[in-house]
């Protein structure tokens, strides 16, 4: 799995577990809904750690909690 896909899945997973809409997450972390939506739809190919940090804040989790998921166990972003 590519890192970007794992990040997308993890955002959705945590938001759903906390019954948070993407709009609410964006509001909580003071970023545009379009920024998160773009990331989730795959239009944004890069997710900077600063953006992920803000999203974690909006989700109410630490960066450590965010990345503590089996989704990140088999990251394979190496291209042939």
Kindly describe this structure:
With 80 residues, the chain is an all-alpha fold. It has a single domain (3-68), classed as lambda repressor-like DNA-binding domains (434 Repressor (Amino-terminal Domain), Orthogonal Bundle). Helix content is 59%, strand content 0%. The chain has 5 helices and no strands. The longest helix has 15 residues, at 3-17. The radius of gyration is 12 Å and the shape is globular. The mean pLDDT is 88.
Characteristics of this structure?
5 helices, mainly alpha, 434 Repressor (Amino-terminal Domain), 80 residues
Broad structural category: mainly alpha
Shape: globular
Number of helices: 5
CATH topology: 434 Repressor (Amino-terminal Domain)
What is the succession of H and E elements?
A: HHHHH
Radius of gyration: 12 Å
Proportion of residues in β-strands: under 5%
> What CATH architecture label applies?
Orthogonal Bundle
Could you name the CATH class?
Mainly Alpha
Tell me roughly what share of residues is in helical segments. 55-70%
How widely separated are the two ends? 15 Å
What is the average per-residue confidence, as pLDDT, rounded to a whole number?
88
Uncertain parts: none
Number of strands: 0
The domain count comes to 1
Question: What is the element layout, followed by pairings?
Answer:
Elements: H1 3-17, H2 22-29, H3 33-40, H4 49-59, H5 63-67
Helix pairs in contact: 1-4, 2-3, 2-4
Write a compact overview of the structure shown.
The protein is mainly alpha-helical and 80 residues long. Helices cover 59% and strands 0% of the residues.
């Amino acid at each position: 799995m590519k890192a970007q896909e794992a990040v997308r899945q993890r955002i959705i997973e945590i938001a759903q577990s906390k019954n948070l809409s993407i709009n609410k997450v964006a509001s909580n972390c003071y970023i545009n809904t379009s920024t998160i939506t773009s990331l989730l739809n795959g239009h944004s190919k890069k997710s900077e750690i600063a953006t992920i940090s803000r999203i974690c804040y909006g989700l109410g989790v630490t960066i450590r909690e965010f990345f503590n998921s089996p989704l990140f166990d088999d990251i394979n972003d190496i291209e042939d």
